[in-house]
Design goal:
The protein is mainly α. The protein has 38 helices and 2 strands. The two termini are 59 Å apart. It comes from Stegodyphus mimosarum (African social velvet spider).
Length: 845
């Protein structure tokens, strides 16, 4: 074994020298490396692999006659002067070497004779080689990677040690007999090498089955090149490893079963569907054998293998085979569901109510360095008693949910075809019974499970035949008071869920919009206070905005009159800031999701409400409140303490219009931010998307920068006595700057939003926004010399107010041409992101 180990070390040195030469950017170092390479003996790699092949094949494959121990054997013949005597085989030479270098002690031989057994050095060497087979395969895999790289990039300076084609042939000649005669040990060694070659960089990963590293890809390619190992043989070998994992040397404790299934999954991903269907019976036995293993990770990988099979192979025509496939799919899904519900507990004895167990959960995005510990732990857990299985598997509940989220929907869609798709409803209903408690819990410690369940529900909601299993639960979750308490990574899943919920039939949206009415809201809360009714009203309006936000353009255009009626009813509560803020959110969503001609009737309402809120802000700034009663130096310190005192006041005093209104309360500040975000979006969007707003733009920020054709006529006929209208934003900026001098501006880019923050704590945070919009009117345009060839553009240019993303036509003549499609796309993407963030609420601790 010492000789074999040294040969492996020599191969590793060649591999390391090659990668060092590829990593050196210094030319001198490359030259030195090239000289070292050329100083190697010709066909050095071939010689080393042949020596490794001779030693390993003799010990692992040949079965010579029993050899006597050194004490009883006859004297050795004299050593010939030649390297070996004529007619002497290589096996005889190696047998003599084994006897010469045998380290067995006399006591062991005498004990062997006394017990009736004879020490066999060949069997001993075979056991040692099989135990250290992972070390040998690791060196061979590393060399195969080097040879592949040399062949790919044509590094001919390395061919002196053996051309890539010849070296690969010798590697396959070495591995083929071993893999055929010692399949389980070979596959277990592949599993160990697979684990050692995993991605060791800690990267976020939301999948149970980790992504493959380049070394693992080459390992699959190496095994696939062994022609004596067809897919049928590999499946049978994997089954043997799952039943009885062989003992091999491991530097780190490795879960042989899990890594074997990971390798097998990667292997079948490169096979054809016809090959998979030919091995159907063997694969069926593999799944049945794997179901007997208690390890949760084994169940997850078996479900992944099933997913790969149904995705790649053609449909099974045999009825019995279809029934067997459905039975296996049902059992694997149930096994994963059992692990998924181990983090739930029953709250009552009479009813089957489940709730999430308190305490932190193990997230799936665990650094890959800890993967070996997790895999080892799952094997130790599997060996424990069933009484502790629930507590042991609770740490894998998040991974079970992620497995179901990734594989459940496509597996059921392929396994159940035609009229049999209705059979999935009972199974999905049972799974939703376990998923719903996770979705109802919005605490931070439940966030990993909540995110996985959102993905699971989003995936199964995309199939029409699954609607009966999740429609009721999803609708109830939408109306839940804590529905929006999630992170931005989950809101995308819910956009898909709500879209499918409202789209797959014609009654769900009608049922939903019927709830968004004053009469309905009041009837549900006959004995509630006005404040609770206002809060419920705001919640329903926010959900209405989210439902429209999840739709396609003009999807609900025929419901615009009903939507406008609900908004008009809510506008009667102008003294309630929480309701008004959600109305402005609805306005923003409607302007994005509806065509301009479908929202024409809304514009008078939108402009009126914006003017009223901006007038209210101006009135508040004119009142000498405590926030503005001190100088500008200590102002920013005082307003925070004042805000804390205001937040402790009774909400009825804040919302009661007959008393003093606390307009620097967070609810009012949120309203001010909402109206400013609406104005920011209308100014950022191009004029052709919001043509109606161009008639009202002057009332808020004034006209756009003067056209170059008007520069010479701006000052002509100007009367000093004529009154001039000052836009609302300019008035607000002047008032704030008068009370608190500030020259801060926001970065201005045409077509981009200025306000992206979800909330504010002081009106002063809007001062840079007001200053920036005020500067748009005062921006100076550089006069451009107009030629006669573009006179028709002068006729089309008009002093109509434009959005800031539609600048002067004359100025555009000398500017680079910007694709309108890309420009609008970037603006729309930013608006989508900001709207998503405005829906999200912080999770409870």
């Amino acid at each position: 074994m010492t000789v074999v180990h040294q040969l492996c070390v020599n191969l590793d040195l060649i591999s390391s020298k090659f990668w060092e030469s590829q990593g050196n950017e210094n030319t001198a170092e490359k030259t030195t490396s090239s000289v070292n390479c050329t100083s190697m003996p010709p066909d050095y790699l071939i010689t080393v692999i042949e020596g490794l092949t001779t030693l390993c094949h003799y010990c692992l494959l040949e079965c010579p006659a029993p050899i006597l121990s050194p004490l009883n054997q006859s004297p050795l013949p004299p050593v010939p002067s030649q390297p070996y005597a004529p007619g002497t085989s290589a096996s005889q030479i190696i047998s003599n070497l084994i006897h010469v270098f045998s380290t067995s002690s006399n006591q062991k031989d005498i004990a062997g004779r006394e017990t009736g057994t004879v020490f066999d050095p060949i069997l001993s060497a075979r056991r040692v080689l099989l135990n250290d087979l992972p070390r040998i395969l690791a060196s061979i895999a590393s060399l195969f990677q080097v040879v592949t790289e040399v062949d790919k990039h044509n590094h001919q300076e390395w061919w002196i040690m053996g051309t890539p084609k010849v070296v690969k042939q010798h590697i396959l000649s070495f591995l083929s007999p071993i893999s055929l005669n010692h399949g389980p040990h070979f596959m277990a060694s592949i599993a160990v090498v697979w684990f050692e070659n995993r991605c060791k960089i800690s990267i976020p990963n939301r999948k149970v089955i980790p992504p493959l590293s380049p070394k693992q890809h080459l390992l699959v390619e190496l095994v696939a090149a062994i022609k004596v190992l067809p897919l049928e043989t590999i499946v049978q070998t994997v089954r043997s490893v799952l039943k009885t994992p062989p003992s091999v040397y491991q530097k780190n404790k490795v879960a042989i079963e899990v890594n074997t299934l990971q390798f097998f999954l990667a292997y079948i991903q490169q096979t054809s569907g016809s090959q998979l269907i030919e091995t159907w019976q063997s694969l069926l036995g593999l799944w049945r054998d794997g179901l007997q293993i208690l390890s949760p990770l084994v169940q997850f990988h078996l479900l992944g293998i099933l997913h790969e099979f149904v995705q790649r192979s053609p449909l099974l025509e045999d009825k019995k085979s279809q029934k067997d496939l459905q039975d296996i799919a049902h059992k694997l899904i149930e096994a994963c569901s059992t692990v998924a519900c181990d983090s739930l507990e029953q709250t009552t004895w009479l009813w089957r109510n489940l709730a999430v167990k308190p305490g932190p959960q193990s997230d799936i995005s665990t650094p890959t360095e800890d993967e070996g510990h997790l895999q080892t732990q799952t094997l130790s857990d599997a060996s424990k008693t069933d009484s502790n299985s629930a507590s042991n598997n609770a740490q894998y509940s998040v991974q079970a949910l992620c497995s179901l989220a990734e594989f459940l929907a496509p597996v059921l869609d392929f396994v159940y075809v035609g009229d049999e798709k209705e059979k999935v409803v009972p199974l999905l209903s049972n799974i939703m019974h376990y998923v719903t408690p996770y979705l109802k819990n919005h605490s931070t410690h439940n966030f990993p499970s909540f995110r996985a369940c959102c993905q699971l529900l989003a995936n199964i909601s995309g199939y029409q035949h699954t609607r009966k299993a999740w429609r009721k639960e999803a609708f109830e979750l939408l109306l839940d008071a804590s529905f929006f308490q999630m992170t931005s990574s989950c809101i995308g899943y819910w956009r898909s869920i709500i879209d499918h919920l409202m789209t797959h039939d014609k009654t769900t949206f009608k049922d939903f919009i019927s709830r968004v009415s004053v009469a309905q809201s009041g009837s549900l809360y006959l004995f509630s206070s006005k404040e609770q009714e206002y809060e419920q009203r705001a919640h329903l309006l926010k959900r209405l905005a989210f439902v429209i936000f999840c739709s396609e353009t003009d999807q609900y255009q025929k419901y615009v009159p009903d939507i406008q009626e609900r908004l008009t009813e809510s506008l009667r509560m102008s003294h309630v800031p929480v309701v008004q803020a959600q109305i402005f959110l609805c306005f923003r969503v409607l302007l994005v999701r509806m065509s301009p001609n479908h929202v024409t009737s809304l514009w008078p309402v939108i402009i009126t409400e914006m003017v009223q809120v901006f007038t209210q802000i101006e009135y508040d700034l004119n009142v000498d409140t405590e926030e503005f009663s001190c100088d500008g130096v200590g102002l920013r310190k005082n307003h925070s303490s004042h805000l804390r005192r205001m937040s402790t006041l009774d909400s009825s005093w804040v919302m009661n219009s007959s008393n003093l209104n606390a307009h620097n309360h967070p609810a009012w500040l949120h309203l001010y931010l909402s109206v400013c975000k609406l104005l920011d979006m209308t100014v950022a969007l191009p004029a052709n998307i919001l043509p109606q707003f161009q008639m009202y733009r002057w009332a808020f920020i004034g006209d756009s920068p003067p056209l170059s054709s008007e520069c010479n006529n701006r000052n002509e006929g100007k009367s000093s006595d004529s009154p001039e209208f000052v836009p609302h934003i300019i008035r607000l900026a002047n008032l704030l700057n008068k009370k608190v001098p500030c020259d801060e501006r926001l970065p201005f880019t045409p077509g981009q939003l200025l306000l992206t923050m979800p909330s504010i704590t002081s009106i002063l945070q809007l001062q840079p926004f007001f200053n920036t919009l005020s500067d748009i009117r005062n921006q100076k345009t550089v006069p451009v010399k107009i030629t006669r060839g573009v006179s028709k553009d002068e006729n089309t240019a008009s002093p109509i107010s434009k959005s800031r993303s539609a600048p002067d036509l004359h100025c555009l003549l000398n500017t680079p041409n910007i694709s309108h499609t890309n420009f609008s796309k970037s603006t729309a993407e930013q608006i989508e992101m900001v709207l998503e963030a405005d829906f999200v609420e912080p999770c409870v601790s």
